Amino acid sequence: GRSAIDERASDDLKGLTRESERSSEREMVLKATQLGSRAGAPRLAAQSRAVRRGGSRGISTARAAMDPSKTAVVLIEYQNEFTTEGGKLHDAVKGTMDSTGMLANTKSVVEKARAQGCKIVHAPISFSDDYKELSDGIYGILANVKEGGCFKASEWGAQICDELSPAEGDVVIEGKRGLDGFASTNLDFVLRQNQIENVVLGGFLTNCCVESTMRTAYEKGYQVVTLTDCTAATSEQELEASVNNTWPMFSKPMTSEDFLGNL
Q: What angle is formed at CA 48 by the lines to CA 42 and CA 52, rounded to 5 degrees?
């Protein structure tokens, strides 16, 4: 009868009203998102530039305080081959080393973090003179290392640089033959034996060994900090892409100043 028709019409009207309200809400959210994106773009761009420069604050300012006794500063390949004039790879990284001041920044971090009770861990890479650790079919970056005669354990180039020479109480990781600081080494064992929860990374290369170690530390459940002004790469573009795009996915990027301020 007419009563049933009226009820259906009323229900249809209510449904249309609700759909109209939901559509309006969606439009409002969309507009707000678009406006927020446009308004935030300059801020994000500025943050990116600040992080890249190792600026005073960058994208990572306020952080929870870290317990020095549960914190390790892991220094990846601060060896003469990279750090020092005459090293086989020094010219390739000198530009970004200079632009970030990474060697002086790292030295400052190590001295102050060590004084506050952090564990300092050195992770050098080295090979025998005939590279018997690597297969004849090795490819990629390790093939370049082999072909260039880099990081031979018997040579000066594989030694840790004088500026960051291990001190009493530091640990030198054994067995690094590849990119990831955990693969083929005793790094995880050392960290867990020392009840480490926070892993702080600096070194070479930003987008290679530092990034590889960062990813594994994240997967293993450590709280990972990457120091934006304590690494170097073979180009500004590679360094910037890693620091700004990849690091925030697997770590808490911050400047050396911010890190020290959180101890």
A: 145
